[in-house]
């Protein structure tokens, strides 16, 4: 009974604070600059993109006549919807590999390293200090015909001449993007593991649970919000990446962002490029909503368990 009363008092206090924030003119004045910023640099560009997706192109000139042809072309032309499906596949693989690499390492640093934990964590995220472009070019140097990998294989006698399969392939894109986004995923998982009370793990082991049972019943469920957040981060950023496919993938490994770039920059077909951008944006928003619900549900599970 006392718990219910305290909960109601807490909720009433929150409602009063929200009401004061809404009626306080100073708060409203503070909200004006960020609202202007969001309107000018976020909502207005997206709205313009949305309008452009309904125009058409006539001999290289954009004609402001309403049409559904761009959306019809996207969903009926395999070049466009096929590239989007390929992008989803690459993003999924990058996400899976990033999580598989990040989780064991984050777990090891959190629960196994006793000394210099912060130093080891810093060493893991050092790649974030290097420019994205430099890291992408580094993989081009490693995987090229005259690159490090081919030279090592030749020196070991495994191959007689340089192989061309390493570079300009989907595998090179997946490898590079996994390397680029793994530190971001690791940070999210590491933070989630760090907030798990150590007494829960000790209590589980004191009650007779083995390491595997403790991990699957305690550690993994409580760290799921961090896993979902990191996976979402890697997936969404991979969906919008166009530099790594352009440098490492070649024409056979184009992703949806490369198609949008070519439509805006080379083909001068802004309406179709806007259509692909809107479709991709809607898809990403749906994915973000699904992962948000999953993260919220797992966070609720965490609170319930604790």
TrEMBL record:
It is a multi-pass membrane protein. It is found in: Cell membrane. The chain crosses the membrane at residues 27-47, 90-109, 121-139, 171-193, 214-239, 259-288. Keywords: Cell membrane, Membrane, Transmembrane, Transmembrane helix, Transport. Residues 84-291 form the ABC transmembrane type-1 domain. InterPro entries: MetI-like (IPR000515), MetI-like_sf (IPR035906). Belongs to the binding-protein-dependent transport system permease family. CysTW subfamily. This is ABC transporter permease. It comes from Bacillus xiapuensis.
């Amino acid at each position: 009974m006392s718990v219910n009363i305290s909960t109601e008092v807490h909720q009433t206090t929150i409602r009063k604070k929200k009401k004061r924030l809404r009626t306080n003119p100073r708060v409203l004045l503070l909200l004006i600059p960020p609202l202007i910023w969001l309107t000018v640099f976020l909502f207005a560009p997206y709205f313009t993109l949305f309008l452009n997706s309904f125009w058409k192109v006539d001999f290289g000139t954009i004609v402001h006549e309403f049409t559904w042809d761009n959306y019809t072309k996207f969903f009926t032309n395999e070049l466009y919807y096929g590239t989007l499906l390929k992008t989803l596949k690459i993003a999924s693989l990058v996400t899976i590999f990033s999580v598989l690499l990040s989780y064991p390492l984050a777990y090891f640093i959190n629960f196994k390293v006793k000394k210099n934990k912060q130093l080891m964590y810093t060493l893991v995220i050092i790649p974030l200090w290097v420019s994205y472009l430099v890291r992408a070019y580094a993989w081009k140097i490693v995987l090229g015909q005259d690159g490090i990998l081919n030279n090592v294989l030749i020196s070991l006698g495994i191959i007689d001449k340089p192989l061309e399969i390493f570079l300009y392939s989907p595998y090179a894109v997946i490898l590079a993007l996994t390397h680029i986004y793994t530190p971001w995923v690791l940070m999210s998982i590491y933070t989630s593991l760090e907030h798990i009370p150590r007494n829960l793990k000790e209590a589980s082991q004191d009650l007779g649970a083995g390491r595997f049972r403790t991990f699957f019943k305690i550690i993994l469920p409580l760290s799921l919000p961090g896993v979902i957040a990191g996976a979402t981060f890697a997936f969404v950023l991979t969906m919008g990446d166009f530099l790594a496919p352009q440098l490492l993938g070649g024409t056979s490994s184009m992703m949806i962002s490369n198609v949008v770039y070519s439509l805006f920059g080379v083909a001068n077909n802004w309406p179709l490029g806007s259509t692909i951008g809107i479709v991709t944006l809607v898809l990403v928003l749906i994915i973000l909503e699904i992962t948000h619900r999953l993260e919220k549900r797992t966070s609720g599970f965490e609170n319930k368990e604790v």
